[in-house]
Design goal:
Layout lengths: L2 H13 L2 H10 L1 H7 L5 H13 L3 E6 L7 H19 L5 E5 L10 H15 L4 E5 L7 H13 L5 E6 L5 H8 L5 E5 L14 H17 L3 E5 L3 H14 L6 E6 L4 H9 L4 E7 L4 H9 L2 H11 L3
Parallel strand pairs: 1-2, 1-8, 2-3, 3-4, 4-5, 5-6, 6-7, 7-8
Helix pairs in contact: 1-12, 5-6, 6-7, 9-10
The structure holds flavin-adenine dinucleotide.
Length: 307
């Protein structure tokens, strides 16, 4: 495993310790403000509005994952429905992301499917697109089943995510082709064993481009969700060289990450969306951001030691 991945694995391991969680929650306020739009829907909508003014569209995400009870899953569903209804009133492109385990996937796949179906019944007629985020590898199979089930039921405004760090992903992509998925491609943000994921960042990056080009060649709509300047440049070069129009793909970045690049891409005429997370359950999201960027760990350490 190379150093980047060893660092990520270490941080995600330590971040799971309740004492570390308490310390970070108390001391990482600056980092939270950078990556999370706020704790309320109102704050998230304000952040989205500010992005819209700069030509960047928002993907609203009520933070939450790994719920342990049905009540909790239903409470998150209620929050997501409130988001859908609020977006329906807005003039901008309407787009929501959610996590299957937020709607009870770990409790029962049938529960998650039924809660998701209810969300889509509200979202589709209001023109709200719903993206199922992809979580860690033990949930991939079930998440793909949920996506396929929803498409087979006739929903179309729903998208899926594939992660280039998993060995299995090319096969998953090929299996999904008959569904003509609206695909978000990411590298992958979780701590995965080398039995399931490439242990080398260069291989993950190469696989990302391989999968992205394959999806474009197969005629899919692809959301390239990455901040990686080399990958963004190669996607631009490849699509120009192959004559793939800008309507066939987009770039997605995270709120607070490379905001100037988000605006630049939008000015160049690409569709750009920023993933805008909000809510009180921000800890696991923040831990993943610390794990993918050593500078963020230094910021946390500095605030812990009074710098
Ligand atoms: C819109 C969006 C949706 C996502 N959805 C999912 C999902 O459903 N499932 C999933 O597993 N993962 C998801 N991810 C996370 C993804 O898997 C990666 O962990 C994350 O994007 C970092 O990888 P990278 O492609 O940006 O490249 P990296 O190789 O990690 O980084 C490339 C460069 O980008 C910049 N950068 C990267 N991360 C940060 C950061 N946190 N802060 C500041 N600069 C940074 C740095 O300059 C870095 O050198 C999503 C990412 C985005 C942007």
């Amino acid at each position: 495993m190379n150093l980047d991945l060893a660092y990520r694995s270490f941080v995600l391991g330590v971040a799971g310790n309740p004492r570390v969680e308490r310390l970070i929650k108390d001391r990482a306020k600056g980092l939270v403000r950078r990556y999370v739009a706020g704790e309320t829907l109102e704050e998230a909508l304000q952040a989205a509005e500010a992005l819209e003014r700069e030509g960047v569209h928002a993907i609203l995400d009520l933070l939450g994952e790994g719920v342990k009870t049905e009540e909790e899953a239903r409470a998150f569903q209620r929050g997501i429905l409130e988001l859908v209804w609020a977006l329906a009133e807005r003039p901008w492109p309407k787009y929501v992301s959610l996590k299957p385990t937020q709607l009870g996937l770990d409790l029962s796949e049938a529960l998650a499917l039924s809660l998701l179906r209810e969300v889509l019944r509200e979202a589709e007629p209001r023109g709200v697109f719903v993206r199922l985020d992809m979580e860690d590898s033990p949930r991939v199979e079930a998440t793909l089943r949920l996506y396929k089930a929803l498409r087979e039921e006739g929903f179309s405004q729903v998208g899926v995510v594939l992660q280039s760090y998993l060995y299995r992903t090319e096969k998953d992509l090929l299996d999904l082709l008959p569904y003509r998925p609206n695909l978000r491609l990411v590298k992958g943000a979780y701590r995965e064993p080398k039995e399931v994921a490439f242990p080398d960042k260069r291989l993950i990056d190469a696989e990302y481009l391989h999968l992205g080009k394959l999806a474009l060649r197969e005629g899919l709509y692809v959301a390239f969700a990455t901040h990686d300047p080399r990958i963004i440049a190669e996607v631009k070069r490849y699509t120009q060289a192959m004559g793939v129009p800008k309507e066939r793909f987009e770039f997605q970045l995270l709120y607070g990450v490379r905001p100037e690049e988000q605006r630049r891409l939008a000015r160049e005429g690409y569709t750009v969306r920023a993933y805008v997370p909000y809510g009180t359950h921000w800890y696991p999201y923040l831990a993943r951001r610390i794990a993918e960027r050593p500078e963020n760990l230094f910021l946390v350490l500095r605030s812990l030691f009074g710098g």
